[in-house]
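Good day; I would like, with your permission, to put a structural problem before you. A protein sequence and the structure tokens that stand for its backbone fold form the material at issue. The record follows directly beneath this note:
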Amino acid sequence: MARAANRLAELGGGITLWQDGAETACVPLPIAGLMSDAPAAVVAGQAQALVAAMAATGCALNNAVMQHSLLALAVIPELRLTDLGLVDVRRFTLVDLFEGNT
């Protein structure tokens, strides 16, 4: 995870996929970590390579990149992962992952 995070810092943001300690696909998004200044055809090729690489790892999710991207969007119900922790969006409360453990 540290290598992936460092790679994203190098790129200025984006999406990277790693397996067995090596990057297998990457979509650089240097504009606020959300957008690219590369031609659309280049970004589309990178995105297709990312989808293929995710499938090669065994990921069977439909549009997995979008599902992962929306995981942190804390306004879509049920549970979302944020910088504060896991949030129950319906109740607007943090979820105690270790309930009963002190």
User: Anything to note?
Assistant: Residues 33 and 82 are 16 Å apart (CA to CA).
